[in-house]
Amino acid sequence: MTFSLDRRPSPRLALRGRIAAWARGPTFARDIVIVLIIKFALLMILKYAFFNHPQAENMSLPPAQVAQALLSVPAPNPPQGDQHAR
């Protein structure tokens, strides 16, 4: 009969115990993880609801044109009317 002095549980049981303790106790880390999961889910719902597809087929533009419109500097408007402050 052989006895082992190593009394550590298997890694699988230790992981289960850690997860069970994490789920049971009111920990700050658990609350943060839950809030982050909820926020991620809400952001994905908003993305799929509003930003996945254009509202109409004629609203799609080539990416180069969109980039030019977003990144270009608009020309300054020339002053109109009388210049009273000269």
Write up this protein.
By secondary structure, this protein is mainly alpha-helical. The chain is 55% helix and 0% strand. It is built from three helices and no strands. It has helices at 11-24, 28-51, 63-71. It is elongated, with a radius of gyration of 30 Å. The mean pLDDT is 78.
Low-confidence stretches are: none
Which structural category do the helix and sheet elements fall into? mainly alpha
Give the overall form.
Answer: elongated
- Summarize the main sheet: none
Average pLDDT score: 78
Based on CA atoms alone, the radius of gyration comes out at 30 Å
Q: Strand portion, in percent?
A: under 5%
Percent range for helical residues?
40-55%
Order of helices and strands: HHH
Number of strands: 0
Distance between the termini: 108 Å
Please tally the helical runs, counting DSSP H or I stretches of 4 or more residues: 3
Helix and strand arrangement:
Blueprint: H1 11-24, H2 28-51, H3 63-71
Core attributes:
single chain; 86 residues; mainly alpha; 3 helices; 55% helix; 0% strand; elongated
Compact description:
With 86 residues, the protein is mostly helical. It has three helices and no strands.
